[in-house]
Amino acid sequence: MQLTQAVLKELLHYDPETGAFERKLRPSRRHPTHRRVPSGFTDDRGYVIICLAGKYYKAHRIAVLWMTGDWPLDQVDHIDGNKSNNRWTNLREATNSQNQANTSARKNNSVGLKGAHRAAGGRWTSRICVNGSRHFLGLHDTPEEAHAAYAAAAARLQPDFWRV
After folding, report:
1. CA 157 – CA 90 distance, rounded (Å)
2. Domain boundaries, position 70
């Protein structure tokens, strides 16, 4: 089955204000009227997943299909960084580079400052990658200086998507 906007709207209801999806249930003897029940579960990475006709979809991707009639061309970014917040105003299509710009510091970052990395000799380095191109941002005496260099470059190179 090809999941189209028409098929999707037959199976689910989406509330753009809350980001919630509800499965549409047909009337039965026990429940003689149409009704809706919440749909989906949150996976271990924080994304809402919905199963339709035996296939699993991320809710933010089917929200784009529901609202626009087209599948997203690349990725869908959660503006606030909350992977389970699928309100329409919180979603935007993005490239991988834009989506990565809107992330916080990685969990294995020892100082918790995005863009700051320990260099040889006790100094700190910073770099940023935009559209597959790495930009070296220099050596710094402190992790805060390295992070500041990253933040300035991110604001210049990815102004609508950067998060520090």
Report:
1. 22
2. 5-94
